[in-house]
C-alpha cells in the first residue's frame, strides 16, 4: 500500500515534481526554509514494504504456537522452577521431579517445553506427510519425507500419551 | 428419482428410470432396483445421516450428570441465571427488564435488569413458552438444564456449514464431529451448566460463519444476518468484545495483504453499523460501542474502509498515476493523523474510557496479579499449563499446526479468517484457562481441515489405479500422467497397502480421541459441584448433599427477611435455593462491600460483631471441609479474604496470619489466625470430634493437621445448624446484650 519513492532523482525530475505536486506541505516547505537553505543532495530510498511469503509467516506462527502451548504465559506469571525436587524419605537425598504432581493446571518449565515440542513434532509429521504425497518430487525424497512424517507422528503421539499418563495417574482408568 | 445421467467414474449403475417413465403403475415399479440411489443422492444421504448422528451424539454425551445424580443446576453462576429465568417466566418480560433486586447485596441492592446479559434467559424462556404452547407441561428447570446440550448440538450444525465454507463439505463433517465431543467445549456446556457460555459459543460461531459467508459472497442479506448474529452474541455474553476486535483485525489484515474488494466493503460496513446499533439495545452494554476503548478498533477500521473506498474512487476518476500517488500519500497521512488526534482527544477528555481490568489483563497478564486480587483469585483465570491443553484438546493439538499449514498453502479470504481466529484465540487460551472454550471451535475447524486434506491425499493414492484406467477427473492426481503411470505400475501395490495402513492409523488416532473425550467428560466435567461424591472404604459411592441440605434448612427455619453473610462464592446459591437476602454474591461488582465481609471474617469476634451489626446480619454461613477432606472450603480460601479485605482496609495485614510465610492452622499458627472469626466458626466444637481412626480428636482432614485452638467459645454468635457431614455450618448472630 505504501507508495515507493524513486531513488536518486535528477534535478530535472525534481523540478518536474515540484511543478506538478499538489502537496500543500511541500509547497510551504519549498518557500520556508528551503528557499534560504539549500537542501543537500542525498540518495535516499524509502524502505519498501514487501509482504513476506506465506510459508515464512507459517514458520513464525509455528514458533508462537510452540511457546503458547508449552505454557509460556504460565511460566512468566507463576514462575515455577525449571524442575521440581523431592527428598527421598529413606536416604535423604534430593531427587528431581519432572512432572508437577497433583493438579492438571500446573507445570514446571522443562515439562512444558518438552510437551510443546512433542505437539509441534506431531504437527510437522502431518506436514511432511503432505509434502511426501506431492507429485512433483523425486521418489527417494518422497519416501524419506513419508517415513520421517510417519515416525514423527508416531513418536509424538506415544510420548504425549506417556507424559499425560505420568502427570495424571488415573488417566483412562 | 428422475435421472440425470452422470459421467463420473463408473460407480453409477443405470437405474430403473426408463422403466418408471414408461409405466405409471406404482406396484410394478416396486422392484428392488428402484431403491438404488445415484452417487449424488448416496452422498447426500451419507452427509445427512452423519450430521444427524453427530447432532444426537453432541446432546447425549453431555447427559452424564443427569443420569448419575438428577436433573439439577450445577455450580454457582447458573443458579443466578435460573432465578432470573424463573422470574422472567413468572412475571413477564417488562418486569424482568426493569427488575431491581433488594435480596442481594444488602443494603445496596442490585439493578438486575441493567446488569445482566439477557440472551440466555430469554432463549430458555422462549423454548419454555414454545413447549407450553405445544401443550408439553415441562418445568422451567428441565428446560434450563437441557438448554446447553441443545445449543451444543446446534453448534455442530453451524460448524458443518462453516467448514464447508472454508474448505469443503468433508472438512465440515469432521469439524462437526470434533466439536460435538471436544472436552474444551463440553466443560462449559454439560446438562445442568446453565451458563452464558452455553449459548454464547453457538452465537459466536454463527456470527463468524455469517460474516465469512458475507465476505465470500458480498451479499447484503448475509451481512445483515451476521449483524443479527452479533446482536444475539452481545445479548448472551460479555465475551462479545472478542468478536468486535477480531473482525476489525481480520479486515485490517485483508487490507494489508491487498485483498480489498467491494464484497469486504459491503460486509464490514453493514455488519458494523447495524451490529453497533443493535448492541446498544442491551442496557448492560449501553453506549460502550462509542465510548469504550475496547471498541475503538472497530470504529477505526470502519473509517479506514471509507478512506480505502474513497481512494479507489479517486483512482478510478483520475488518469494520472503520479498525481494519484501524491494524492494517496497525502490522504493516508492526513487520515492517520486525524484518527490519532481524535483518539487522543477522546481519551484525554475522558469520553473514551480505557480498557477495563478484565480485558486489559488479557493483553498484559501480569496486571491482575499485581493490581486486582479479585480477578487473580478465581481459579479459572489462571494461565494455562500444557496439561490443560492436552486434557481439553488431545490429538487436536497435533492437527492444529498441520491445519495451519494447509490453510497457508491455500490462502483465501475465508482461510485467512480461520487462521486469525485460531491464533488469537489460542493466545488468549494460553493466558486464561477459561478461554480454552473460545479457542475450541477454531481448533476443531483447523484440525478438521488437516484431517480432511490428509485423508483426501491418502484416498487419492488408493484411487490412482482406477483413475489411470479411466481418462477422467483429476481430483487429486494432477501432474504428468505419463511418467507417473510408469512408476505407479511398479510400486502400485506397495503404495496401496501403505495408504491403507495409514488410513487405519488415522482411524486409530481418531478413535483414541473419541475414547479420551468420553473419559474426560465422564470423570472430570460432569460433576455438579453442589453435590459431592467420593469413594467409600469398600469402593461404594458416597454422596454428600450438604449444600442443598443447608440451603433448605435456611429456607424453612429462618424468618423470611433474614440476612445471611457468607463469602461471595455462595451468594447466588443462597438467594436461589435458600430464598434469603445475602450481603455479597458472585456478581462481585462492589469490591468495598466484599472487602467489608472479608474484614469481618478475618477480625476478632468483637470487631466482627460490630461490622455484622452495621450490616444487619442475622446469620453467618461458612463452608468447612475438615471432616470430609473437602478442599474447596473457606479455610483454604481464607487468605483471599485477607488480601481483598486488606486491599481496602489497611488494618488487615496478611503477614499477621502467616508464620514465616507459611499458612498454618495447627499449634504453631499465628495467634491472630487462631482467634479470628473464620477460624472460630469453622472449628467450633470440632476439637471434640474424632475424624479419622488413629488420629487425635480435632484432626483436620483437609489440611492434614491437628488444629491448634480446640477450646473455642463464641460470645456473640451461636450455632444454628451444621449439616450431616459438617460441610456447611450456619451461625445465628445474637442481639446485643441488655444494658444490665
Automatic annotation (TrEMBL), chain A:
Pfam families per record: OST3_OST6 (PF04756)
Swiss-Prot/TrEMBL keywords: Membrane, Transmembrane, Transmembrane helix
- Asked whether the UniProt record includes Membrane among its keywords, one would answer yes
UniProt-annotated location(s): Membrane
Transmembrane recorded as keyword: yes
Provide the Gene Ontology terms for cellular component: oligosaccharyltransferase complex
Give the transmembrane ranges: 51-74, 108-133, 145-166
User: What InterPro entries would the database entry show?
Assistant: OligosaccharylTrfase_OST3/OST6 (IPR021149), OSTC (IPR042416)
Q: Primary place of residence?
A: membrane
Q: Which domain of life is it from?
A: Eukaryota
Q: Which family does it belong to?
A: Belongs to the OSTC family.
Annotated protein name in UniProt: Oligosaccharyltransferase complex subunit ostc
TrEMBL record, chain B:
Signal peptide from the UniProt entry: none
UniProt keyword Transmembrane present: yes
Record bears the keyword Transferase: yes
Output the InterPro entries linked to this UniProt entry: Oligo_trans_STT3 (IPR003674), STT3-PglB_core (IPR048999), STT3_N (IPR048307)
Q: Which domain of life is it from?
A: Eukaryota
Please give the start and end residues of each transmembrane region. Answer: 44-64, 111-131, 143-163, 169-187, 199-224, 230-253, 265-284, 296-314, 326-352, 389-407, 414-430
Instruction: Using the record's annotation, list all stretches that form the Oligosaccharyl transferase STT3 N-terminal domain.
Output: 50-446
Pathway where it operates: Protein modification; protein glycosylation
Q: Which UniProt keywords apply?
A: Endoplasmic reticulum, Glycoprotein, Glycosyltransferase, Magnesium, Manganese, Membrane, Metal-binding, Transferase, Transmembrane, Transmembrane helix
Query: Which Gene3D superfamilies does the record cross-reference, listed alphabetically?
Result: 3.40.50.12610
Membrane association type:
Multi-pass membrane protein
Q: Which cofactor does it need?
A: Mn(2+); Mg(2+)
Assembly, per entry: Component of the oligosaccharyltransferase (OST) complex.
As for family, the record states:
Belongs to the STT3 family.
Report what the protein is called.
dolichyl-diphosphooligosaccharide--protein glycotransferase
Q: What organism, scientifically named, is this protein from?
A: Citrus x changshan-huyou
Amino acid at each position: 500500500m505504501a507508495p515507493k519513492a524513486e531513488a536518486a532523482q535528477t534535478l530535472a525530475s525534481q523540478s518536474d515534481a515540484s511543478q506538478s505536486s499538489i502537496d500543500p506541505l511541500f509547497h510551504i516547505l519549498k518557500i520556508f526554509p528551503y528557499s534560504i537553505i539549500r537542501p543537500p543532495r542525498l540518495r535516499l530510498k524509502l524502505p519498501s514494504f514487501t509482504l513476506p511469503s506465506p510459508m515464512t509467516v507459517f514458520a513464525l506462527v509455528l514458533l508462537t504456537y510452540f511457546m503458547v502451548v508449552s505454557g509460556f504465559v504460565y511460566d512468566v506469571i507463576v514462575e515455577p522452577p525449571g524442575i521440581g525436587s523431592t527428598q527421598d524419605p529413606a536416604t535423604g537425598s534430593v531427587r528431581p521431579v519432572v512432572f508437577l504432581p497433583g493438579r492438571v493446571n500446573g507445570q514446571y518449565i522443562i515439562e512444558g517445553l518438552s510437551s510443546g515440542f512433542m505437539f509441534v513434532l506431531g504437527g510437522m509429521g502431518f506436514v511432511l506427510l503432505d509434502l511426501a504425497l506431492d507429485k512433483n518430487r523425486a521418489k527417494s525424497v518422497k519416501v524419506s519425507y513419508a517415513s520421517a512424517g510417519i515416525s514423527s507422528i508416531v513418536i509424538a503421539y506415544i510420548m504425549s500419551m506417556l507424559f499425560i499418563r505420568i502427570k495424571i495417574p488415573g488417566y483412562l482408568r | 428419482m428422475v435421472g440425470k445421467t452422470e459421467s463420473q467414474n463408473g460407480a453409477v449403475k443405470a437405474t430403473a428410470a426408463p422403466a418408471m417413465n414408461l409405466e405409471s403403475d406404482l406396484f410394478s415399479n416396486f422392484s428392488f432396483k428402484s431403491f438404488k440411489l445415484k452417487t449424488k443422492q448416496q452422498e447426500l444421504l451419507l452427509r445427512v445421516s452423519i450430521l444427524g448422528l453427530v447432532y444426537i451424539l453432541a446432546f447425549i454425551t453431555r447427559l452424564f450428570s443427569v443420569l448419575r445424580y438428577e436433573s439439577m443446576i450445577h455450580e454457582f453462576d447458573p443458579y443466578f441465571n435460573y432465578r432470573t429465568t424463573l422470574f422472567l417466566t413468572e412475571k413477564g418480560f417488562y418486569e424482568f427488564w426493569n427488575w431491581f433486586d433488594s435480596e442481594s447485596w444488602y443494603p445496596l441492592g442490585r439493578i438486575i435488569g441493567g446488569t445482566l446479559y439477557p440472551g440466555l434467559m430469554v432463549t430458555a424462556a422462549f423454548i419454555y413458552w414454545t413447549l407450553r404452547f405445544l401443550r408439553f407441561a415441562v418445568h422451567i428447570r428441565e428446560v434450563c438444564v437441557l438448554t446447553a446440550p441443545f445449543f451444543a448440538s446446534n453448534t455442530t450444525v453451524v460448524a458443518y456449514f462453516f467448514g464447508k465454507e472454508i474448505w469443503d463439505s468433508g472438512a465440515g463433517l469432521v469439524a462437526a464431529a470434533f466439536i460435538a465431543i471436544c472436552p474444551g467445549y463440553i466443560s462449559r456446556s454439560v446438562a445442568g451448566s446453565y451458563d452464558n457460555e452455553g449459548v454464547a459459543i453457538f452465537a459466536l460461531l454463527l456470527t463468524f460463519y455469517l460474516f465469512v459467508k458475507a465476505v465470500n459472497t458480498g451479499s447484503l442479506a448475509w451481512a445483515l444476518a451476521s449483524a443479527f448474529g452479533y446482536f444475539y452474541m452481545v445479548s448472551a455474553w460479555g465475551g462479545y468484545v472478542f468478536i468486535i476486535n477480531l473482525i476489525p483485525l481480520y479486515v485490517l489484515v485483508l487490507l494489508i495483504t491487498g485483498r480489498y474488494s467491494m464484497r469486504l466493503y459491503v460486509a464490514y460496513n453493514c455488519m458494523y453499523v447495524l451490529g453497533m446499533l443493535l448492541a446498544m439495545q442491551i442496557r448492560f452494554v449501553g453506549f460502550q460501542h462509542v465510548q469504550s476503548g475496547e471498541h475503538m478498533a472497530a470504529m477505526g477500521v470502519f473509517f479506514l474502509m471509507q478512506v480505502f473506498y474513497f481512494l479507489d474512487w479517486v483512482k478510478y476518476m483520475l488518469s494520472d498515476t503520479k498525481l494519484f500517488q501524491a494524492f494517496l500519500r497525502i490522504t493516508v497521512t492526513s487520515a492517520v493523523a486525524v484518527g490519532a488526534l481524535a483518539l487522543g482527544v477522546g481519551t484525554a477528555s475522558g469520553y473514551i474510557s480505557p480498557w477495563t481490568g478484565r480485558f486489559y489483563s488479557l493483553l498484559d497478564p501480569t496486571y491482575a496479579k499485581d493490581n486486582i486480587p479479585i480477578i487473580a483469585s478465581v481459579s479459572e483465570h489462571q494461565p494455562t499449563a500444557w496439561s490443560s491443553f492436552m486434557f481439553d484438546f488431545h490429538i487436536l493439538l497435533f492437527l492444529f499446526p498441520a491445519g495451519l499449514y494447509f490453510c497457508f498453502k491455500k490462502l483465501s479470504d475465508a482461510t485467512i479468517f480461520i487462521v486469525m481466529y485460531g491464533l488469537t484465540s489460542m493466545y488468549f487460551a494460553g493466558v486464561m484457562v477459561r478461554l480454552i472454550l473460545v479457542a475450541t471451535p477454531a481448533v476443531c475447524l483447523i484440525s478438521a481441515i488437516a484431517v480432511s486434506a490428509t485423508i483426501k491425499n491418502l484416498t487419492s493414492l488408493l484411487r490412482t489405479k482406477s483413475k489411470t484406467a479411466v481418462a477422467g477427473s483429476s481430483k487429486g492426481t494432477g501432474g504428468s500422467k505419463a511418467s507417473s503411470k510408469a512408476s505407479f505400475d511398479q510400486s502400485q501395490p506397495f503404495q496401496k497397502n501403505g495408504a491403507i495402513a495409514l488410513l487405519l492409523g488415522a482411524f486409530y488416532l481418531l478413535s483414541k480421541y473419541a475414547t479420551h473425550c468420553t473419559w474426560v467428560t465422564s470423570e472430570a466435567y460432569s460433576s455438579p459441584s453442589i453435590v459431592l461424591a467420593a469413594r467409600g472404604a469398600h469402593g461404594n459411592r458416597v454422596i454428600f448433599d450438604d449444600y442443598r441440605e443447608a440451603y433448605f434448612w435456611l429456607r424453612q427455619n429462618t424468618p423470611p427477611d433474614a440476612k445471611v453473610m457468607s463469602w461471595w462464592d455462595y451468594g447466588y446459591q443462597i438467594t436461589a435455593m435458600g430464598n434469603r437476602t445475602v450481603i455479597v454474591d458472585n456478581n462481585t461488582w462492589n469490591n468495598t462491600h466484599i472487602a467489608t465481609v472479608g474484614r469481618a471474617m478475618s477480625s476478632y469476634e468483637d470487631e466482627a460483631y460490630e461490622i455484622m451489626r452495621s450490616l444487619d446480619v442475622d446469620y453467618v454461613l461458612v463452608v468447612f471441609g475438615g471432616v470430609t477432606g473437602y478442599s474447596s472450603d473457606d479455610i483454604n480460601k481464607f487468605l483471599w479474604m485477607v488480601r481483598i479485605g486488606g486491599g481496602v482496609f489497611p488494618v488487615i495485614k496478611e503477614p499477621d496470619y502467616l508464620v514465616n510465610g507459611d499458612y498454618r492452622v495447627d499449634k504453631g499458627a499465628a495467634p491472630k489466625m487462631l482467634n479470628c472469626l473464620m477460624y472460630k466458626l469453622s472449628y467450633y466444637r470440632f476439637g471434640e470430634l474424632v475424624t479419622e481412626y488413629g488420629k487425635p480428636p480435632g484432626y483436620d482432614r483437609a489440611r492434614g493437621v491437628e488444629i491448634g485452638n480446640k477450646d473455642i467459645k463464641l460470645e456473640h454468635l451461636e450455632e444454628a445448624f451444621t449439616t450431616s457431614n459438617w460441610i456447611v455450618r450456619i451461625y445465628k448472630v445474637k442481639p446485643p446484650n441488655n444494658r444490665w
